[in-house]
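Input chain follows. Return structure tokens only.
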Amino acid sequence: MKNKTTITIVIILIAILGIIIGNGIYQKNHNFDYYHQSVVKKITKIFSNNEKIQEATVNFVVYDTASITKLFFADKSGNQVLLQRNGTGWTVNSEYVANQNLVDQMLYTINRLHIKPVSVKKTGNVVTQMASTNTKVEVYQMMPRINLFNIVKLFYHETLSKVYYVGGVTQDNVGTYVLNEGDNKVYIAYIPALNGSISSRFSANLIDWRDHHIFAEPMDNIQSVKLEINGDVHNSFIINTIGRAQYEMQRLDGETVEYSDNKVLTLLMEFKDVRFEAFLNDVDPARRDSIINSPFQQRLILTTKDGTVRSVTTFSLLPNADMFDYDPNAVNNPDIFDDLTDPDHQYALLSEGNEFVLIQDFVFGKLLKPADYYSKDYREDIPQIYYKELKTVESN
């Protein structure tokens, strides 16, 4: 009797050990997210003609994007990007804040990918093309070392779950070629109902992933806002917080401004989301130095209640004279400079990171208004529209 009991226990232990080992092997060769699907779906796939496609799909798709901790991209030009989850947000290369909208788009892409095979005739040419032009993608996830029937999950750890290569677009510009590492079978990846390729989303360029926020401060966290207008001290001003929803406003020449509450509150609320249009890292260094050493237009300084100070210094955007065949001697004429100034954009130098960027008047125009605008006595000029008398022309 004891021998039978001992044998039974040994068999049970061996069975448990086999399940654990088999689970480990399965997780190594399959997507962990496969466990999240229903038993009915799994059985359906087993007897489906699309079984091979479904098995291949798990090499590229992540069903549980919340488990992703890192995304790594590297291209043939030597560019590398590491997106890393950090609390509630993401960082780029462990140094910069990531553009959350683009990260969300990337997670959506990985989650919604569909694939289909490439014909045998085209496979050779596609593989040759991908050998010279591709982006390597690595996906890291938090996964359990032990997962019994998707019920008991133990010993979570970060692991490299997927490695594949993203190539060029198909001839119809809808699909993107992808190749799983260690495989010689090329597939076409696409998102249903998306009329376009997804290849550009897998960018290894650092600039493409960086956040464009300049200010992201709620009104309650602002201690002061200061605007310096070059050459106009009377219209330059500072707004200080003196209590809850209480402020004082002074021109920089010392005069107190009897301001409009609505206009000041509207200004302070704008700082919750202020972004620039583009980085200008590719501008020639000599031209950059020439611009930032020229007289500035405005300087906007925001101080938070914890003492953090951020500033934006703006400069007129002038086109490169050589590009438009202007006479260099004539361009030195201030009147021509005024004619060439872009009314919709400005250069800007950010205090944080000493970044040189492009800003839009559509965003910054409402932040750079003079002190007069906030005065209770201010009245905006109403544009006059004149209509010419129309003559009636008789029809033939």
